[in-house]
Automatic annotation (TrEMBL):
Signal peptide: none annotated. Keywords: Aminopeptidase, Hydrolase, Metal-binding, Protease. Pfam families: Creatinase_N, Creatinase_N_2, Peptidase_M24, Peptidase_M24_C. Residues 21-145 form the Creatinase N-terminal domain. Residues 320-532 form the Peptidase M24 domain. Residues 543-603 form the Peptidase M24 C-terminal domain. Gene3D superfamilies: Creatinase/methionine aminopeptidase superfamily (3.90.230.10), Creatinase/prolidase N-terminal domain (3.40.350.10). Its EC number is 3.4.11.-. This is Aminopeptidase P family protein. One of its GO terms (molecular function) is aminopeptidase activity. InterPro entries: Creatin/AminoP/Spt16_N, Creatinase/aminopeptidase-like, Creatinase_N, Pept_M24, Pept_M24B, Peptidase_M24_C, X-Pro_aminopeptidase_P. Belongs to the peptidase M24B family.
Amino acid sequence: MRQTFEVKGGPAIGKSNLPLLREQMKAQNLDAFYIPHEDAYQNEYLPAAFDRLTWVTGFTGSAGAAMILQKSAVVFVDGRYTLQAAKQLDSSLFERADLTTLGPFKWLAKQDLNGKRIGVDLQLVNQKAFEDLSSAAKRAGCEVIAVDINPIDAAWTDQPPEPREIVVPHALEYAGEAHASKRTRVGKLLDEVKADAVIITSPASIAWLFNIRGGDVQCSPLPLGRAILHKNGEAELFLHPDKVTDALTSHLDNVEVRPISQLSARFEKLKGKTVSLDPNLASAWFFKALNDVGANIVLQNDPSALPRACKNETEIKGSQNAHRRDGAAIVRFLRWLDSGEVQSGKVNEIQAAQQLEMRREELQGLKDLSFETISGAGSNGAHCHYRVNEDTVKTLERGTLYLVDSGGQYLDGTTDITRTVAIGEPTQEMKERYTIVLKGHIALARLRFPAGTSGHAIDAIARAPMWALGLDYEHGTGHGVGSYLGVHEGPQRIAKAVNNVALEPGMIVSNEPGYYKEDGYGIRIENLQFVTQPRDILGGDIQMMEFEALTLAPLCSRLIERGLLTPDEWIWVDRYHQRVLKELTPLLTGDDLEWLKNACKEL
C-alpha cells in the first residue's frame, strides 16, 4: 500500500519535544521562536526531514504556525483543522488560536515583549512573512534574530535525512511544450519588470519549466532544487548530485546542471544585475543573499506560475484521459460501497481506503496517490481534512454518512474527487443537507463568466444555497490542480479570501462545497473542472467562459432530495450522469457496468 495508517502526531510529541526546543532557544539567547509550517521550499506537504512544526507540537495539519516562548506557546490553525488541533495539541502546553482571523503576526503585535529576542529561520519564511514578522515585533517591542542554526534542528537528534530522489524527464507527449520553449517564453516575461534574471524557488515551477519530475515530496512528483533563469532563456538548475543521471543531463542538453551547494557562489555572478524574486514564494534568505552580493532585487510574481496554471491542449487532453481511467476505478469502489458487505455496517475507514487504493492500483498507470485518502465515517467526516489512523478508525455504521476524498497521480494528469455516500438509510436531515451542498456545486458548475473574473468573485455562488439556511463551510470552494504535479496549485483559487488572479482558459480548479456537523457527519461533493475558451453567447454582448467537468463519477442519488432541486438542477444532474455513463461504459464490464447504469438513472 502507498499509505499507512499508523498514528502520527498527538499530545505526547509536544510534551516530549517542546522542552528540548526551549533548551536550545536558551542556549541561543532567544526568548521566543517563530515556527511556520512550511519548509525552505514553501511546500504544503513536507518531507519528513522538514516537518518541524509537527516535531515540536504534535499537530500534523498541512497549514499552521506556532509562536514558542519560554513559558507559553501558541499554535495557529485554520477552520479545516480546529477539531484536529484540539485532539493533537496538549492543552496544558499550547494555546490554540485562529490562523486566518488572528494569525501569528497580529498576535505578536498585541504582546508586550519589550527587549525580548524572537528567533526566525530565514530559510523557512518568505520575504512577505519576514516583513510582517519584523513589523509585528517592532510593535511588540522585541528584536527579530535571524538564527544561524535552527534550534529545532539542533534539538532534533534523530532528524531524518533530506530526500535525494532521482530526477527524471517528463516526456513531451505529456508536457505538450518543450522546456526550451517554456524557458524562452518565461524569460520574456522578465521584461515586464526590466529584470536580467529570476531565481525560481518553487519546486512546482522548476518541474514545469524544465519538464522534469522527482520524488522528494510524498504524493507530489516534485524535485527539490533551485534555478536561475536569464531573460534570454538560458538557465542554471541546481540539484543535489545524487539526483542527477545521464538521462537527465541529456534531456537538459542546453541547461547548466550544477550541485545545489554552488548556489550561493553563483549569486556572485549576479552582482549589479537586476534579479526578480517573488516575495510570497522566495524565502527571506534569498533576499539577504542577493543583497549581500550587490544584486538589485525587483519584486515580481513567479513568472512561471501563470503559464503553468494555464494548461495547454495536450495537458487538458491528458487530464481528461486520466480522469476517465480514474473514474472507472472510482465506480468499482462505489459499487463495493453499495454492496451488502459494506452496507451491513461491518467495514471500517482503513479497509475502505485500502479498497479504493487497490482499485486505482489495478489501473497499472498509477504513479502515486495525490494525497493521503480522507476516509471519514460518521462524525470523523466532520473533520474537513481528517486522516484515519489506527487510534481514530471508525466503522461505516448503518444510518451514517461516509465521506471519501482521494486522488491519484498519473503521468498524464492529477485527480482529486470527493464523494459522500449513505451507509444504510439516511435521515431526512442528511438528505436535505446533501442536496443543499449539491445545489451549490451545480450553481458553480453551470456558471458563465467574462474574462477578468477571479475565483474570489464567484465563491459566494457556491455558498448561496447554504447561506440562505444559515449554513457555511470553513474551507475554500476551489483550488488549482497541477498536471502530474501538486494537487493544490496556485495562483488561482475559489475562496472567500481575496485573490485577484483572473480565471483563464486551461486552468484546472476544484468545485467542492461542503457541510460539516460536529459530532455528526460531513458532506462534500468535489469535481475537478477546467476553464473553457471564451465563446459567443446567443443574444449576448460579450464572450463568456465556462467550466467543463473533468471528474467522472456518479453522485449518491439516495441522498438527493428531489423536491429541493429546480428543473434546471435536475437537468444538470441527469446530463452529468449521462456523460459519466457514456464515457465510462467502454472501461467497465459485468456487474460494475450494470451498477453504473443504475447509479446514472435519470432523476
